[in-house]
Amino acid sequence: MTNHADSPGAAAAPVLDIRDFTIELVTGKMVSPIVDGASFQVHEGRTLGIVGESGCGKSMLSLGIMKLIPTPPAKIAEGQVLLDGSDLVPLSDKQMEQVRGNRISMIFQEPMTSLNPVYTVGYQIGEALRAHSSLSSAAARQKAIELLRKVGIPNPEKRVDEYPHSLSGGMRQRVMIAIALACEPRVLIADEPTTALDVTIQAQILDLMRSLKTESGTAIMLISHDLGVIAEMADDVIVMYAGRIIEQAPVHSLFAAPSHPYTQGLLASIPAVEGEQHRLQPVPGTVPPPHDRPKGCAFHPRCSFSDEKCRAERPPLEEKLAGHRVACWHAGPGASA
Amino acid sequence: MTAQNETPLLEVRNLTKHFNVGGGGLFRRDTQTVKALDDVSFTVGKGKTFAIVGESGCGKSTLGRSLLRLEQPTGGQVHLDGTDVTTASAATLRAMRRKMQIVFQDPFSSLHPKMTAGQLVAEPMLLHRIATRKDVRERVARLFELVGLAPYQMDRYPHQFSGGQRQRIAIARALAVDPSLIVCDEPVSALDVSIQAQIINLLTDLQEKLGVSYVFISHDLGVVRYISHEIAVMYLGKIIEQGPKDELFSSPKHPYTKALLSAVPRPDPTYRSRRIVLKGDLPNPLDPPPGCSFSSRCAHVRATCREVEPQLDAVSPQHRAACHFWREM
């Protein structure tokens, strides 16, 4: 544990600094924000967990940072993405190609579809290396073998010439991680990296990601719907609902004192494998679609604390405890929520 | 607690299902056999939930489908209320399907997109002549209320519902024929955690109200803990451990069950992980290791394990484990 554990941003400059980031979806005459004014930072050697359910905007946020959102219909409407202080938002596609896979890398949920079936594993790792450096193909192959060994693939000299179909799901995700780390990126964005994997294989991949982070100091943005994975991996956590950050805190503070009724609801919905077993307390209702978000606090129709103010005014994201920010009129020290 | 003297609703005896791979056709190869189910036996009591857990490829879905004879088993018997499903004639089977229903994982592909929610729920009742054209709407409305849908939604199409609501439609459709057994194949895996909790509570409430039994297939140990009375853990087509829920969670005996339990990430950052990380991947089912099928990944493996296949051994009257060394675990 480092000394800035409880106050991210107090010490070194962040690797990634997102400010008022807004992505809009334009369909016909309708404009709906799918990511709405997100601001946060990711620091070297730390993992930021982003949690939320389908449609909360967490994947759009990560694709938006990489400038991989389909435009149209979606577009970055506002905000800055500062990578080591320089903004990515105004960069051209050509300039972004120099950033992606080099200074920021991404791994996705589906290792089956993110690898090209007609090229060998070694070729695909080498491709990332050759795109961003002047390595010869022989040197790239050698580096690919090294990377495969680093991500725990047995017999890398042989595996390097194999095609993705001959690898298991867990192995493919290891290859994806090898590709993502090939150029020693400053930031790794992992979007549900273990969701498609079995739980024993997930444990292997999470172990791998943890040790790679310790070794390389890469800043990680981990997107997941699984609060268990977040609790285990993250240093800081953001909870998203309907396109907005509704709670943001160091991981221990978030799980010890979840302050937004939605975060509390998520935690009460988890069927735990140990501890006392009582009836699950699900959040009633469903997530509103982006074009039909309620006025005021977007969560109010599903919230048992909602009142006049919640229906009329949107609560700002405010610091309620040290380093712990919540967007709720009812949250805070001594509040009922 | 399953009463020993009561006849079980479902009795599965030595069920096996083999798939032949390769062979024949243009490129003649030797036929290989995958034992998707290998000598599986268990019973399910009335109003009880029997859960089957395991990872991809362990055979849990094949088991679910074989119970309803959506797959023809290679061997063994499935008795529902005393009648053997595996040898039933087409006519008997059709009548028996009234008693057993299935709910699938994906509520997006299991509902016909051109039928309204009301028609989907009405269809099985009309097929089995439980309802007449006259009173069917009334019955559908009652089922809608039972599963937490509003009767006014009857005339909507599946795409107008969310994933959780679609799963409610699938459950209403299964309940329409008043079955005594519902096989639930990963019914909450495609749902978000808050919606998942709603469906788990719904299934529990329905069981309490209607006395229906479930065979609940899942990869998620947390979900299984909240819904089942008894649990079987499968690995490569075999049940490797089986027992009452509380006993299985508090004192698992098979190293695989222990590893599975330890691998679940806990929603608690202060939790000190005593995780058992398994080596490698699931073995190729065409070429399972000799002896114990888990021996290639087991941390406690010994010479015997690679030679002799362990049988399910009684740990306690209702708890069984297939490990030579369960006493030391």
TrEMBL record, chain A:
<dbReference type="GO" id="GO:0005886">
    <property type="term" value="C:plasma membrane"/>
</dbReference>
<dbReference type="InterPro" id="IPR027417">
    <property type="entry name" value="P-loop_NTPase"/>
</dbReference>
<dbReference type="InterPro" id="IPR013563">
    <property type="entry name" value="Oligopep_ABC_C"/>
</dbReference>
<dbReference type="GO" id="GO:0055085">
    <property type="term" value="P:transmembrane transport"/>
</dbReference>
<dbReference type="InterPro" id="IPR003593">
    <property type="entry name" value="AAA+_ATPase"/>
</dbReference>
<dbReference type="InterPro" id="IPR050388">
    <property type="entry name" value="ABC_Ni/Peptide_Import"/>
</dbReference>
<protein>
    <submittedName>
        <fullName>Peptide/nickel transport system ATP-binding protein/oligopeptide transport system ATP-binding protein</fullName>
    </submittedName>
</protein>
<dbReference type="InterPro" id="IPR003439">
    <property type="entry name" value="ABC_transporter-like_ATP-bd"/>
</dbReference>
<dbReference type="Pfam" id="PF08352">
    <property type="entry name" value="oligo_HPY"/>
</dbReference>
<dbReference type="GO" id="GO:0016887">
    <property type="term" value="F:ATP hydrolysis activity"/>
</dbReference>
<keyword id="KW-1003">Cell membrane</keyword>
<keyword id="KW-0813">Transport</keyword>
<keyword id="KW-0547">Nucleotide-binding</keyword>
<comment type="similarity">
    <text>Belongs to the ABC transporter superfamily.</text>
</comment>
<feature type="domain" description="ABC transporter">
    <location>
        <begin position="18"/>
        <end position="267"/>
    </location>
</feature>
<dbReference type="GO" id="GO:0015833">
    <property type="term" value="P:peptide transport"/>
</dbReference>
<dbReference type="GO" id="GO:0005524">
    <property type="term" value="F:ATP binding"/>
</dbReference>
<dbReference type="Pfam" id="PF00005">
    <property type="entry name" value="ABC_tran"/>
</dbReference>
<keyword id="KW-0067">ATP-binding</keyword>
<keyword id="KW-0472">Membrane</keyword>
<dbReference type="InterPro" id="IPR017871">
    <property type="entry name" value="ABC_transporter-like_CS"/>
</dbReference>
